[in-house]
Design goal:
A hairpin with a 6-residue loop joins strand 8 (124-128) and strand 9. The protein starts with a helix and ends with a strand. It has helices spanning 2-19, 26-30, 101-107; strands spanning 34-40, 47-52, 57-63, 68-73, 83-89, 92-99, 114-121, 124-128, 135-138. The chain is of the alpha+beta class and 141 residues long. The strands form 2 sheets. It has a 5-stranded mixed beta sheet. Strands 3-2-5-6 form a 4-stranded antiparallel beta sheet. The radius of gyration is 20 Å and the shape is elongated.
């Protein structure tokens, strides 16, 4: 009897998946990669920033005006994935979360890709999921 349980459980899982999660493509999105992009829109001096999660330190980075830095990751299924960045420009500095589960839905674009764009400007920080339509989310102060 035990050797029939596992195949039956697998068949049941596939049936449920096809009827619910897979039809809605939720399962596919759960495993889709996420991309965070930091785009500099500040003149000299260079934009400096450091982005980190609990498990990853991406190091101190510098960007010229018009340059971009990005990274790809897969969100953890059972634990919350969180990345934050600390930005430095002239005498200003600002820290905030650039990815977590609350932001995740805003990163999904029309192509069902997950891209979180953060454009750093002299007047603050802007967010987009398509690198075209930006909305201001933070000031430097």
């Amino acid at each position: 009897m035990a050797r029939f349980f596992l195949p039956l459980a697998i068949i049941a899982f596939h049936f449920v998946c096809l009827q619910t999660l897979c039809e809605q493509q939720e399962l596919i999105h759960l495993y889709a990669p996420r991309m965070v992009h930091i785009v500099s829109n500040v003149p000299n001096p260079l934009l400096k920033f450091r982005c980190q999660s609990k498990d990853s330190d991406l190091g101190l980075r510098t960007l010229n005006d018009g340059q971009e830095f990005s990274w790809k990751f897969y969100p953890h299924i059972f634990f919350r994935t969180l990345f934050f960045c600390h930005f430095y420009w002239e005498t200003k500095d600002k820290s905030f979360v650039v990815y977590n589960q609350e932001i995740d839905g805003s990163c999904k674009n029309k192509k069902s890709e997950f891209n979180c764009y953060f454009r750093v400007s002299p007047d603050g920080f802007y967010f987009s999921n398509d690198n075209v339509n930006y909305k201001k989310i933070n000031d430097w102060a």
